[in-house]
Amino acid sequence: MPERVNAAQDRLSPGSAPMLVVTPGSEPGSAADDAARDPAYDAVLLLGFGGPEGQDDVIPFLRNVTRGRGIPEERLETVATHYRAFGGVSPVNGQNRALRAALEAELADRGEPLPVYWGNRNWTPLLADTVRAASAAGHTRLLAITTSAYSSYSSCRQYREDIAGALMTTGLDATMRIDAVRPYFDEPGFTVPFVEGVRAVLARLAVRGLPVARTHVLFTTHSIPTADAARSGPPGVDFGAGGAYLAQHRAVAAAVMAALADSASRGDRGTAADGESVPAWSLAFQSRSGPPAMPWLEPDVNDALRALAADGTQAVVIVPIGFISDHMEVLWDLDTEAAATATTLGLTMERVATPGIHPAFVAALATLALERLHGPVLPGCPSGCCEKGAGRPAH
């Protein structure tokens, strides 16, 4: 496929830092692909990870997530305590219901009244059941929007494998086509909620007398095996250590901070005014779930907090740019564990909200759909794009 290397300042907010990141086109999930014809999409598919919705769902859900990885039951019970602390209910399903409704309404408002279906990888509604329902309603061409914005095996390629698997399982691979939109980390509507959130937190910290020079903006995302990170993005493109996954996250963080600096330079209300335009920032990782012997991206968010406290930081603004909504990894790993670490260290910590159903984010997803509905049919991801790293167990 021809490489699409985009200087994402053209896509992100004005004043954002330049970044060169290759974004692959969409890889069809159907064996019936024909890139030369008009796809004529008749429905949209919101594709998520899934989560339990009651105490009885927790262990079966975790077994689905870890199937084939040899995770012992006692480890599942440990992780289950995170969900049980919230009544066994992950927030992600409710959030995806809200996002599905918001996206359907946005498309209708923009003259494309397409139904939006929702299916999950690991819990009901499972993707195969959703595909059957869409077929029973007469739909044959679906455009899938995944609930992850970045390039990697687990956040991109695996969802495309899920689509292909669902079509095969249902026997619809010859009659239904499902294409996925491109990674959308560089859509301005994805970053707007983070910019607004950081700006609001900095304003509150300023009122409390906490100086910008002693404040740090800590961006976080889900850690993945370093071997997966190295192979993220199209092969043959040098993204540096960490592959496209790390490059894309760093670029989003830089764009958020550049937008804040631009606001500060204009003297916008709510920005810092104590001689420093914006705080320093860094990227940390969270929610590691692999075996100790397997290297994953670091530093862990708790280790990063310890290092910041040792360096004299007084306040930390946590910005979970790796998530589009408040998954359990946000509620537990950040709002519970990281918050406890910050308290122990004497740090003031505030966490910025995820995009959720922020109007700018919903509009961005609608734009992605319209881009495919009315634009050219894009080529698929090249062979080897976002492959699993060597030695990583299958999910």
TrEMBL record:
Pfam families: Ferrochelatase. It catalyses: Fe-coproporphyrin III + 2 H(+) = coproporphyrin III + Fe(2+). The keyword Lyase applies. The keyword Lyase applies. GO terms for biological process: heme biosynthetic process. It comes from the Bacteria. It is found in: Cytoplasm. It is an enzyme of class 4 (lyase). One of its GO terms (cellular component) is cytoplasm. Fe-coproporphyrin III binds at S90, Y159. Fe(2+) binds at H222, E329. Keywords: Cytoplasm, Heme biosynthesis, Iron, Lyase, Metal-binding, Porphyrin biosynthesis. Involved in coproporphyrin-dependent heme b biosynthesis. Catalyzes the insertion of ferrous iron into coproporphyrin III to form Fe-coproporphyrin III. Belongs to the ferrochelatase family. This is Coproporphyrin III ferrochelatase. The gene is cpfC.
